[in-house]
Design goal:
heterodimer; A: mainly alpha; globular; B: 191 residues; mainly alpha; 3-stranded antiparallel sheet; 6 helices; 3 strands; 9% strand; elongated
Chain lengths: 164, 191
């Protein structure tokens, strides 16, 4: 059986950032990450291998975010406050610009439907393959391709609108 | 916004979900799609610069999860210990559900006068006598019935005079519960 603390160390940041991208809210992302790891702790014996943990975590995190979205039903289009961006240089102006762009992307992401948002976040942010995204969302690869291509186009349109 | 019918394929090419060579012919003479492809690739790069969750937030989540898992484990042990303690207490305590045998107080009402009944001789065997002839192991109920039977007059004997009803009062451990058995003479009496 895999060691829980090792798995927590390995996946905690990833689960948090996935939840953050899907909910757009740090407090919600923290709650979801905690619940996801508590579920992992309860279901650890049922997982066949360590390699099954990451797909399981993706699926459970996405579902937890969907559940939260259904409960609140109010998409909170807030910027991700209190977060810092990675920066290659110390230039504060460049960092501010990046922060602004990140806020636009987050806002654009939250304007997507939950399934399109989940598909594009898993594919383009988490770097999962189409097959892995399909498994995480419980659908087919063909459906995921359609959702991803539409999500990218909607995102582009939204970002173009914001710039105007 | 690009309204070209190829835009969805362009979006797939931008993410590497479709090989660019599949669109080479179209991209060569569609500047809008070429522009869209560049923009979509740029968006994707921006999307990939995910915000870094502060270390303090990660640590907080980790600490909460570990605290909850440890509490969860302790709760299991506490529940197990409680179950064992209850089991041990139950085994060590006398079984309080078992009823105490009733204390029997038998008395015959002497003042109730019943007129003697004389009827034609019957060929039917005396049922009460037969029942009494079969011994059964004693229990609380049997003890009560035995006392009741002993208090009854012999059924196959001729009545020597007026017969009285037989009343047996059995008091139980509960002062509010009293069992009263009344033996009433009915039907034929053998002579």
């Amino acid at each position: 059986m895999p060691d829980f603390e090792q798995l927590l160390t390995q996946h905690q940041t990833r689960v948090l950032s996935l939840a953050l991208r899907l909910t757009g809210n740090l407090a919600d992302a923290q709650d979801i990450a905690q619940e996801v790891f508590m579920r992992l702790h309860r279901n650890l014996k049922g997982l066949p291998a360590v390699s099954a943990v990451a797909p399981w975590l993706h699926r459970v995190t996405v579902n937890a975010c969907f559940d939260l979205g259904r409960k609140s039903r109010s998409s909170r289009l807030t910027s991700i406050d209190g977060l810092t961006l990675t920066s290659n240089g110390p230039d504060p102006e460049a960092l501010a610009l990046r922060q602004q762009h990140q806020d636009r992307i987050q806002s654009a992401l939250l304007s997507l439907g939950e399934r399109e948002r989940a598909a594009i976040v898993l594919r383009d942010l988490e770097g999962l393959t189409t097959a892995e995204v399909a498994a995480a969302l419980g659908t087919t690869e063909a459906t995921i391709r359609v959702q991803i291509s539409r999500a990218r186009l909607k995102l582009r349109a939204r970002l173009t609108e914001v710039r105007k | 916004m690009n309204s070209c019918e190829w835009s969805e394929q362009v979006a797939l090419v931008a993410g590497g979900d479709l090989d660019e060579s599949a669109l080479d012919g179209h991209l060569a003479h569609c500047p809008a799609c070429r522009e869209l492809l560049v923009a979509l690739r740029s968006d994707r790069e921006w999307l990939q610069t995910a915000p870094v969750v502060p270390v303090s937030v990660v640590s907080e989540v980790r600490a909460n999860v570990l605290r909850r898992t440890r509490t969860h484990g302790r709760l299991w042990w506490a529940a197990l210990a409680a179950a064992l303690a209850i089991g041990a207490f139950w085994i060590g305590t006398p079984h309080r559900d078992a009823p105490a045998p009733p204390a029997l107080v038998t008395h015959v009402k002497p003042d109730v006068q019943v007129p003697a009944v004389t009827t034609a001789p019957s060929v039917r065997p005396p049922r009460k006598q037969l029942r009494r002839s079969v011994p059964r192991p004693a229990s609380g109920g049997d003890e009560l019935m035995a006392a009741f039977a002993a208090a009854l007059p012999p059924l196959n004997s001729a009545p020597a005079g007026p017969q009285a009803d037989t009343v047996i009062t059995a008091s139980t451990a509960d002062p509010d519960v009293v069992i009263v058995l009344i033996g009433e003479l009915q039907g034929e009496v053998n002579e």
